Amino acid sequence: MLKTTTDTDAAAWLRKKQSEATGLIHSVEEREKTLLRVLREVVDAQPEYFSSGTGLKPMTMSALADKLGLHLSTISRAVQGKYIVCTAGTVELKSLFSVPVGGGDNAVSASLVRERIKKLVDAEDPAHPLTDQNICDALKSMNIIVSRRVIVKYREALGIPSSSGRRAR
What is the mean pLDDT of the chain? Predict the structure, then answer.
């Protein structure tokens, strides 16, 4: 239409719309490239998680943004509302990011700590439930070094009552 129109106003309007469409297509392509870069880095950083569905390592959006040379808000927008199908099932991309818990070489993801707490509580003897200190000690034997306060925080976030609340009467 732009090539055949003789109306200058119509031609100007069509050029404007064509420019807007080109800009939109470019923006969508850039978002796709950004999402693919983010996904590649996440998959490369978490091989055990994507092969077995367990062992999620601590990874922050901030660290990934630094590595990719992007702004933190770009990473956040890229993963917002996106999901990936993997061995662990359909997982929200945002859930793959967690702050490290514990220190140094023993740092693990917060989601791994919550998962282990839940497993320990599920396997406990109902007549003798594990105290928060017992859970802390059990995690320490798995080389997961966290404080008792962290155990309390995650136990409560999981909706698990204290040992006295779990005791079978």
Answer: 89
Q: Residue 162 phi/psi, 5° resolution?
A: -65, 170
Q: Are 160 and 119 in contact (CB under 8 A)?
A: no
Q: What is the pLDDT of residues 83-140, one digit of tens each?
A: 999 888 898 998 888 877 776 666 788 888 888 999 999 999 988 999 999 999 999 9
The 3-state secondary structure of the chain, one letter per residue: CCCCCCCHHHHHHHHHHHHHHHHHHHHHHHHHHHHHHHHHHHHHHCHHHHHHCCCCCCECHHHHHHHHCCCHHHHHHHHCCCEEEECCEEEEHHHHCECEECCHHHCEEHHHHHHHHHHHHHCCECCECCCHHHHHHHHHHCCCCCCHHHHHHHHHHCCCCCHHHHCCC
- Cross-strand pairs, 65: none
Contact yes or no for 78/38 (Cβ under 8 A): yes
Token digits of residue 113:
């700590």
Place of tokens 């922050």: 60
The pLDDT of 62-75, averaged and rounded, is: 94
Instruction: Using a cut of 0.85, tell me whether the model's pTM lies above it.
Output: no
